[in-house]
Each structure stands twice: as structure tokens, then as C-alpha cells.
Amino acid sequence: MLITLDLFSEVPIYQQIRDRVVEAVADGVLREGSQLPSTRQLGVDLGINFHTVNKAYDLLRTEGVILVNRKSGAIVRRDASSGPPEPEYADEWQSRLRTLLAEAVVQGLPPSEVTARSNALLGSFTSAS
Amino acid sequence: MLITLDLFSEVPIYQQIRDRVVEAVADGVLREGSQLPSTRQLGVDLGINFHTVNKAYDLLRTEGVILVNRKSGAIVRRDASSGPPEPEYADEWQSRLRTLLAEAVVQGLPPSEVTARSNALLGSFTSAS
DNA sequence: CCAGCTGTTATAGCAATACTATAACAGCTA
DNA sequence: TAGCTGTTATAGTATTGCTATAACAGCTGG
User: Fold this and answer.
1) What are the DSSP calls for B25-58, one per residue?
2) Which backbone phi and psi does A48 adopt, to 5 degrees?
3) Complex ipTM, two decimals?
4) What range(s) does the HTH gntR-type domain occupy (chains A, B) (predicted)?
5) Domains in chain A, please, with CATH?
6) Could you tell me which residues are beta bridge partners of residue B35?
């Protein structure tokens, strides 16, 4: 798990951390039970305040991706194999996908290429498990 | 073109307007040359300040989706048929797709269903043209 | 037991963002 | 001329993102 930040991005730092962790779990680099660095440690590593890391972890906990104890620290809770999501989640997620796909199509990306890229990404997930 | 806002959403209003317009173009509801309402008119219709609409239009113009003249107002410039995007755009877009797909997989949405939903959405675009 | 780590909470400050509001100017059009 | 349009400026408010400092509680290794 190596996280690289883009401090010039418009995407908030805590969101970038959250995104990288989610991707790492999808990739299988992080699995159920995997230990994440402490907020203070990761803050030092990334050169940012530990409160910002805390916010990212808080977001991940809210999403059910990780579990945070005073005892065990932050560990991965959710996996691709953890069971199906709430139906309401799928709907909300799909509306975000719809916006993203619409953008690509409007920008002229051929639907066939959209499908190809999507399949390539999906294939790269959890194939390392 | 009917735009509905969610004033309680965490997504900024101007972003919601931008998203709905992009989706409308992808759907074929708005085509190349289609006229968009004036910023003041849409502001009244949506019950918001016209500067917020202006910001959304500005974003759409920056993205190359619409064209804004003092003379003709805002009209759709870009279509699914307007030609291929910059290669750099495709890469940046793919990284956003990657994050979104990773999230779905982590939340337990089966990859097969992800593909199905993606194909359904793509199929709904521009099929009305 | 003590030192050092951890998570958690509180408080504060600063810069930037989102939205609203009012105003004014310029150009097109009926 | 009147009324629409886009454009620009300025300003105020609330919220967000990030940083900073501090303090407390619980776990753990010496």
C-alpha cells in the first residue's frame, strides 16, 4: 500500500486517501483484516496533518470499508467477498455512473472503448486474490 | 430538458446543472445546436441566483460542451458525434472510472451487475437520435 | 510502573468555495 | 425606446478543507 497524493488536485486530500484505499481493497492489495497505518504515522508519511487522515478514515468507516478500534487501529472490514450491498446503494451508485458515462460519450469517447476500459478495470480487480 | 435540483445534496448546485445538461446531451434530448435557457430564466425556474447558473454554463463552456455568445445565448456545441476526445482526457476520465468501479466492487456489487448496468446506460444514450 | 504509542475530542484559525445579492454596462431585438 | 441577453464587479455570508495545539484515555513494551 503506497499512497501518492496530488497536492495540486482539486480533489480534497482526505478524498484522495479514501479513493486510494478503496482501490487498494478492490485490487486485493488490501484484504479483509489488513492493517492500515495509524493516522499519525500516515500523516507524517504523506506530509500532512493527522486530522486530515482521520477524516479519510472516518469516511471509510462510515462507508463500511474499514473498522476502527482504539485497540486494533484501522483494519479493512469490507471486501469484494463481504456480501451484496443495500439496494438503495446500487441505485445511488448507478446515478453517479450515469453521469460519468454520459460525460465520456459527450466528449466523443466511443461506447465500445468505454466498455473495453470498463471491462479491463473490472478484470484487474481482485484477480490478485 | 427539465432539470430537477436536490438542494439538500452535497453536490454543488452548479455541478448538478452541469451534470444534468451533460446527461441530456448524451441522451440525445439536447443535440448540437440546441438552445439552452438564459441564465436569468433558468435561475428563476430553479429558484436560484442566475450567477450560479452562470457558473454551470461557464463550466460547460470550459469543457467544450456548449458555446456561449452574447448573440445566440448558450447552445450545445458538442455531441457524441463531434469527434474523438484528447487522449489525455481519456486517461484522466479512466482514473475516475477506476475509482467509481472500485467502490462498487468493494461494496459488494457483483462485477457482472456492474457490467450489466454500464451496458444498459450506454445503450440508452443517443439511441433516441 | 513508566514511556510511548494509539484513537478521540475540542477548539481555533485561515484560506478557499458555494451561493446569494445588487449593480452597472453593452449589444441584440421587437 | 423597452426589454431581453451576456459580462463584469463587488460584497457579504455560510460552509468546507486543512492545519495547529492541546488534552484525555487506553493499550503495550520496556
Assistant:
1) HHHTSS-TTPBPPPHHHHHHHHTS-HHHHHHHHH
2) -130, 170
3) 0.92
4) 11-79
5) 13-76 (1.10.10.10)
6) B75
Contact B108 A115 (CB under 8 A): no
Checking each nucleotide's C1' against the CA of B15, the nearest proves to be C18
Q: Answer whether A93 sits within 8 Å of B107, measured CB to CB.
A: yes
**Residue ranges in chain A assigned as alpha helix (H):** 13-27, 39-46, 50-62, 87-106, 111-124
Strand C nucleotides with an atom less than 7 Å from a protein beta carbon? 5-11, 17-22, 26-29
Instruction: Report the run of H or E that residue B74 belongs to, with start and end.
Output: strand B73-76
| CB within 7 A of strand D (chain A, 32-91) | 48-49, 51-52, 55, 70-71
What residue of B is the nearest CA neighbor of A79? B106
**A24-53 pLDDT tens trace:** 999 999 999 999 999 999 999 999 999 999
pLDDT tens sequence across A57-106: 999 999 999 999 888 889 999 777 677 777 899 999 999 999 999 999 99
